[in-house]
Each structure stands twice: as C-alpha cells, then as structure tokens.
Specification:
Length: 63
Amino acid sequence: MVSKKIIDKKPVFLCDICGIGYADKKTAQECEDYCQAHPGSCNPEISKKGVYFPGDFIPLKQK
Ligand SMILES: [Zn+2]
C-alpha cells in the first residue's frame, strides 16, 4: 500500500516496499507493483522519477 507523507511541505507518496517517494500516487503505485514482483530490485525507469530517497536506501543496481 502506498503511503502519503508530507516532506518539505509537499505531499509525497511512498512505495511501502523500497521507501522511495514520488510526487504522484500513480508512480508510487507503479513502483510498488514492480517492487512486489521483483523483490530486492527497483526499476530505474520508475525510481528516477522519485523525489525522496530514504537514507538507508540500497543503491540502485547499475546496468
Ligand atoms: Zn518501490
């Protein structure tokens, strides 16, 4: 489930699996769907749209 959080006075939608935040709920949901289907990896096409990255985020896999 995507969760909403206010960061820097802006609403950010967080993927509950990887914790990356997005400016819109749709993208966060896409990320979460991807994370669910591919545990331990993130889709760089989606995560590059992220506006918030948690401090303990595992670095994206480089291709
Ligand atoms: Zn995610």
